[in-house]
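The material for today's practical consists of a large collection of protein records. Backbone structure tokens are a discrete shorthand for how the chain folds in space. An example says more than a description, so a record of this kind follows:
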Amino acid sequence: MLPADNEVESWVRVGPATAANNDTQLYNQIDGAAPKYIDRGWQGSVYAEYSQGGVLMSVAIHDMGSGDNADSIFNYDLPLSRIVISNTDPNDPLGARPNAVVDMGLPTGYQAKAFIGQYYIEVSIDDRSDAALASVEAFTVKILDRNAWAAKS
């Protein structure tokens, strides 16, 4: 599910991806934020970091068990100050609506939040440049494109 090295611009994975498959592993990975996932049907997660020119980007893909759960945590976490980078299919029973946004309210970086099928995706970068914003958007769209099959399940 994660992009391969150089699949998005020249971003390259730093080390192996890390999985969290139970509540203890999730708590160890994200500490105090674990309940918001667990309370919404969380099943497992994969985490990876990518590097480009000394800048790091973090990616988390969470299996929320169902499309309704993924949609629920996306809406729960929806930032007030945001730009929409993708919408659901207009043929979705709930109609076209945002399924990927970038949080524009962070002081030192950007974080994209997205969902597709049963998966909730978070992509973050600790850089506030135009290039960083473009990279976060491109990375998020690539993950959505790679996982479009999930929307059909």
About this structure: The longest strand covers residues 44-52. The chain has a mean pLDDT of 92.
